[in-house]
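Entry type: protein chain
Record version: 2
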Amino acid sequence: MLKTFKLGGVHPAENKISEDKKIEVLPLPKIAYIPISQHLGAPAKPLVNKGDSIKVGQQIAKGEAFISANIHSSVSGKVQKIDAVIDASGYKRTAVVVQVEGDEWEEGIDKTKDIKRDITLSQKEIIAKINEKGIVGLGGATFPSHVKLMVPDGKKADVLIINGVECEPYLTSDHRLMLEMGEEMMIGVEILKRALGVNRAVIGIENNKPDAIEHLSKIAKNFSGIEVQGLKVKYPQGAEKQLIKAIINREVPSGKLPIEVGAVVNNSGTAYAVYEAVQKNKPLIERVVTITGKSVKNPGNFMVRIGTPVSELIEAGGGLPDDTGKVISGGPMMGKALNSLEAPIVKGTSGILIMQEEEAARKQVLNCIRCSRCVSVCPMGLEPYLLEKVVMFEDFERTEKERVMDCIECGSCQFTCPANRPLLDYIRLGKNKVGQIMRARAKK
């Protein structure tokens, strides 16, 4: 019997339109917009100035806070300016704007496709290299990877879990990466194992990707302590706590991190980026991004340089369809609608989904009928209908008491609501307000 998590979950249409499309390299942009904050935590501090000539792989911003990440140039050329540009959130954020000139790389980066299997760095050197090269979690949260690998005193990791689930509808970037860069990814898993000091790693993949399960299972035979676990298809199985429950049957307590139960979770794309950083000395300057949608002429998976405008990826997909309703960064369940197609691709961009007008339109909001469907599908055991109400009435003390901060924003509640209530919208607002209150309280 295939493993899965028990509490809640839904089964949206998969729509994996681009799963058979091999990874193509997107041409370089004419101008790159490289934000200095592409990660959870404090923005990095710019190291370059207007007029500077820079190369591919050159560090252009330094993550100085404990939770932050370095930023490197994905292109070579001249710094036009350091200015605020619109990002995927719709807000203006500081970015290094580069006029692209050729493709000149920093010395010391191995650009070849040769697979480097021998791992020569020590545990501390691996973590330092991951920090230096700006590696962050590529599953969406973009938490700085070196911080996740620094296990706090008093805690101990005994298992590394690799997230190859990709349960979000439409997205296929992780699927293609596992198929086409499987051995490099597996070496990255071994590197992460050594960084954590664990002997066991489990790669979780939903069984709608049988080719990836078979491919990685064959490669895993050449590695000690790495296994591939097929999982039942169920959304949101790619969330950390749900994946841990599905694979090792441990429950992460409310408000706690996976290390509380001896686990550390990394995305399959992160494992590949770790391989490139440690074995190839290559910073995180590009990633695989899916361009997809039911009306997209050329859906596919592209290796895209960080800072490339979304509009250029859309052009590679055949242009913006006439019946476009929304352009979403990410998938339909957890992604965010873009208000500018000039927003840049960043480290956390897994896909660009172009939704048809009919598909994207919000339905008329009706009164809650107390059906409790939102409660039954919540994978965190919350009461979304109640959270909507207490946020609506700005009772943020009650909102916190009802564990709004445990919400993983999977959207299962809103997806299943027969009254079309904007449950997730209110819950996100509540999380934002309660988060502000908690931070202010911590400073006192």
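Comment: The chain has two domains: 4-8+14-23+107-361, 373-443.
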